[in-house]
Write a structure and sequence with these properties.
CATH architecture of the largest domain in chain A: Orthogonal Bundle
Shape of chain B: globular
Oligomer: heterodimer
CATH superfamily of the largest domain in chain A: MetI-like
Number of domains of chain A: 4
Order of helices and strands of chain A: HHHEEEEEEEHHHHHHHHHHHHHHH
Distance between the termini of chain A: 59 Å
CATH class of the largest domain in chain A: Mainly Alpha
Shape of chain A: elongated
Strand content of chain B: 15-25%
Strand content of chain A: 5-15%
Strand order of the largest sheet of chain B: 6-7-8-3-9-10
Number of strands of chain B: 10
CATH topology of the largest domain in chain A: MetI-like fold
Order of helices and strands of chain B: EEEHEEHEHHHHEHEHEEH
Largest sheet of chain A: 4 strands, antiparallel
Number of strands of chain A: 7
Number of helices of chain A: 18
Amino acid sequence: MTNERSKKSKRRTWVTMLFVVFGFLTYAYGIDVTDVNLDEIESEQRQTNLFRIVRALAHPDILSRDTEEVTISAEIYVPCGATEAAAPDTSGAYLLIDPSCADPEAEVIVRGFGFAPGSQGPISFIPPSDVSLSVGEFVVAEDGTFEVPVELKDRPDEQVQHIRVIARQDVGNLKWTETARLTFDFALETVFMALLATTIGTFLAIPLSFLASRNLMRPIKSPMVSLALGVIGLPVGGLVGIWAARLARSGVGFLLGNAFLTLVGILVLVAVIRYLLKLLFPEEEPDEIPTGSERVVRFVLAAITAVVALSILVLFADFLISVGSNMAETTGWFRAQDRVLEIPAGPLFFIARFVFTMGDILRLVIPVLAAAIGAGIFAQLGSVLGRAIVARVSDSVDTLLRYVTAILAGAVIATGIGAIAEWFYQWDDLTKTFWIPGLVGGLAGIALAFRTRKADQVASGMTIYYMARTLFNSLRSIEPLVMAIIFVVWVGVGPFAGALALALHTTASLAKLYSEQVESISTGPIEAVQATGANRLQTVMYAVVPQIVPPYISFTLYRWDINVRMSTIIGFVGGGGLGLLLQQNVNLLNYRAAAVQMFAIAIIVASMDYISARLRERLV
Amino acid sequence: MLKVEHLTKVYEGGVVALEDVSFEVPDGEFLAVIGLSGSGKSTLLRCINRLIEPTDGKITWHGADITTASQDELRRIRRKIGMVFQHFNLVHRSTVLTNVLAGRLGYTTPAASIINRFSAADVAKAHETLELVGIDDKARSRADELSGGQQQRVGIARALMQDPEMILADEPVASLDPVLAHSIMQYLDLIQKRGVTVLCSLHFLDLVQQYADRAIALNDGKLMFDGPPLEIDDARFREIYGQDAERIG
C-alpha cells in the first residue's frame, strides 16, 4: 500500500519536473522568437523618441488660436572677415548678436529687444544657401527682451549670413483645428459604416441562420428522387428567375424614366396583384386536397403573380431613381442622366442621394433576387414532384427514376463546380471543366442511387446544414481587415469598401450566433404548433420566431458594437473611417493630429459600449 | 373510429417504445391511457398525429390511413386533432390570443398567417373560446404571465380552435395541483360531451375511473390492459405497474 503510494508520488514528481522543463523551453524559445531586446529600451535615442511621441499624444491638436508672426533677422559673419555686420534697424523689434562675427561652432549670444511680451518661437541660422538651420528657441520676457546663447553651425563663408527669429503670439479666441473638424467628419463616417454593415449583415443573416440550425434542418428528409429533382431544380429555377426579371423589365419598359408614369404603373399593378393573390390564397384552406390540374392552374397563376411582382419592383426601383434624380437636380448633387458628380449644394442633397441609391440598389438586386427565389421555388417544386412520383410509382419505375435523376443531379453539381474552377483558373478546356466533372458527378449519382432504396429518406436538411455551417465558419475565419483589402480593390478606397467587408463578416458571424440561438429554443411550442396542422413555414413563424427575437436583438447590438470597433481601424487597409486618417498622420509623423484620432476612437468605442449595454438591458 | 393496428416504434439507437400495439376507439369515447413513465404513452399519442413517425403498423381514422398520408393530407388530418400537453407548450413571449389563434394555422393559408393576419371570424372565435375556459380577460397578456392552471386552459382553448373531432391529451394534469387537475379534467369532459373523441394519458387512477369510459394500459411498450376503468383492481394494477407498486390516490 505504502509502496504503491510512494510510486505514485514519485511519478507525480517526474511529471511536474517535465512540465517545468517544458515550460522553461517554451518561454526561452518564445523570447528568442519575439526578439526581446532590452538594449533598445534603454538606448537614449529611443527614449528621446518615445518621450517626443508620448508628449505629442498628450497635446492633441484639437483647439488652437490664431497666431501673429514677426520675423526678424540680424547679420553675422562666420568666420570674422574684412566686413562688419550692419547695425540693426532699432525702430521696431530688433536683434543684437554678441559678438557680430565668430568662428564656426562658436557660441554667440542672441539678444532681442522690442518684442511682444509672451511671444515665443525658434531661432535659426541662415547660410547664404537660404536653408533654415534650427539653433535654439526663445521666450520673450515681460520687458519685451530675451537673451539666448546659441552655438553657430559649421558653415564658414565669406558672404554675410543671418540669424533669424520668428516670434509667434496667440491672438483671438480658441477654435477647433482643421484636424478636429476632419476627425469629426471621419468619426461620423466610422459610426455610419458600422451601422450600414450591421444592418445589411442582420438582414442576410436572419434567413441564413435557419439553414444552419440543426434542430430545424434535421427533420427535413426526402426520398432520393425528390432530392435529385430538387438539386436539378436549382439551376433551372435560377435561369427562369433571371428570365422572369428580364420579362418583367421589358413588360413595363415603356413606363420607365418618368416618375409619374412609373407611379401610375405601380398603382395599377398593385391592384392586379392583390386580385391575383386573392385567387391564389383563399383565406381558408379548402378541405379537399387540390387535384393535379388544379395544381397546374395554381402554378401558372403563381408564375404570373411572380412576374407582376417583379414588374412592380422594377417600376419601384425606377421610380426611386427618377425621384432621386429630380431631387438631386434641385439640390445640385449631380446632373441627372450622366451621373456627373457635382458639388453638393442645398441641405437635403443627402436625401436625394439616398433615394437614388436605394433605387439603384434595387435595380441591381432584382435579377439576383429573382434568380435566388426562382432557384428556391424550383428546388421546392422538384422535391414535391419527386415525393409525389415516389408515392405513386412501382418499385422498378422508382429504381429507374432514381438512377436517372441521381445521375443528372450529380452531373449538375459537378459541372457547377467545374464552372467555378474554370472561372478561377481559366483553363478554357471543356473536357476539363465540363465533360470530366459531368462524368464524375454522374458516377457519384449512380453510386448514391445504388446505395439507396425506395423507402430510404436522404437527410437533405442536414446536407444543407453542413454546407451552411462550413461556409459561415470559413467566412468567419477571414478577418474583416483582410476582406477589406479585396473590397478596396473592387470598389476603391473609402468607407464603402469597409462597409462591404464588415457586412460580409457580420453576415457570417451573426448567422452562426443566431443559429445557435435557434438550436437552443424549447421544442414544446414547435411540437404544439405542428400538431395544429401548421406547415413548416408557419411553424417557424409562430413557434420559432417569438422565441428568438430577444437573443437576436441582443446579438445584433453586440455585433454593432464590434463593427464600430472594427470600423475604426479598417481604414488602415483603405476601408475608410478614422483609421484612414490615423494611418496617414502616423506615416507623416504628425503625432499631435494622430492623437486626436486616437482619442476619437477611444470615445466612440467607449460610448458604443455603454449605449449597446443600456439598449440590451432595456430591450431584452 | 380510430383504429391502431400493430403499431411499433423503435427509436434511433434501438429503444423499443411501442411493440405491436393494437386497439380501437369509437367516436365520442373518452379513452384513458395509463402506465408508468417511459411506458410509451407519449409516443403512442404522438404517433397518432405523426409528430413521431411510427416504425411499423397502421393507424386509420375515419377510414383515412394516417401512417401513409402525404404532407398535404397530414395537414388536413392534424387540423382535426387537437393536442394538449403536460407542459402546456405555449409560446411564452406571444400573447394568449396569438397562442390561441395558432390553433387555426391548419386552416389558414400560409401566406396570410405569415404576416400575422387572421380573419375577423377567427379572432372572434378565439375570444369565444377563451371565454369558455374563463380567461378572456387575459387575452392580451403574455402567456408566461399566467399561472399553470391558466396556461393549461389556454392550451385547451388552442386545441378547441381547431374544431377538433379528436383530442390527444398527454398527461394534461401532471403539472397541476389536484384542484386544478379536476377543473382541467372537467373541461375535457365537457369537450367529450360535445361529441369529441378524447385520448388522455393519466397517472392517477381515481381520475381515470371518474372521467374515462375505457382505459388501456401500457407497460414497456406493450398493451397490458384494455377495458372499463373499474375493472382495474389491485391484481390488474400490479400487472400494469409492476409487483412492487403501491396505489396512491
